[in-house]
Each structure stands twice: as C-alpha cells, then as structure tokens.
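Quick one before lunch.
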Amino acid sequence: MTPDSHRLYESIILDHNKSPRNYGKPAQAAAAIEAVNPLCGDTFTLYLVADGEHITTLSFEGNGCAISKASASLMTCMLKGKTREAAVALGNAFESMLQKEPDAPVNEALLGDLMAFSGVRAFPMRIKCAVLCWRALLAHLTA
Ligand code: ZN
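Model of the zinc ion complex:
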C-alpha cells in the first residue's frame, strides 16, 4: 500500500466516524438487530427494512469506537438496495479480507471503500470492531 492510499483509507474511516450516514431509527417499522462487542464497549442497533429479497432501508444508532462506527456507517451505504444474497457475499468477503495476512491479495474491486479497513488486519483486537455490525446483520439475514 502506498502512503497516499493509506491516507485516503484513514480519511474514509475518520469521515464516517465523524459524520455517520443513515444514523437513527427509521420512521417505518423495521427489524431491530443488536450488535454488541463487550471487549471494546461498542453497542449498536441496526434497523433493517426489506422488500422481499431487497434491502430497502438500513440504518443504525448507538455508540462505539471509530472503527466500529465507521464500519456500520459504510455498511448502511453499501447495502441499501442490495439483495440479501449480495449483502451476505460482501460481508463474507470483508470478513475474509480482515482475516488474511496484511500482505495477502484481496478483491479490492468488490470491497471498494471497505478496503479502508485493511489496516485493521495489523491489530487483531480491532477486527472484532470492524466486523461487529456486519456479523450481526449477516446472522439476521441467514437465520
Ligand atoms: Zn471497537
């Protein structure tokens, strides 16, 4: 990774942490999904509205570290309008990228802005923060 792309990645996380997207409970009825990481103190609730196979609304609220909050915010942006199947595939690709060695090749085209979290691989304790809301959502979607 070049120093420039590293800075870009950091700025994506800082931006989503400072200005989380799709934050708050939607007006319409939504499934509430709890996501808690006691090791770090991250506590979020995800709100999901689906129309058949499509995720029509996905938002969140709660508190946590910058990594967990930015990951939740980016997740809501990336999955809106996606099918359940595509959401599960992206979540699994994200998790597998985080579990790889820092220099292992990954599918950057599929992951897009989620590559911002590639630096987290060097900090195993923070991987739980990055995948917290993804794991909670995928558990709900595949239940
Ligand atoms: Zn955390």
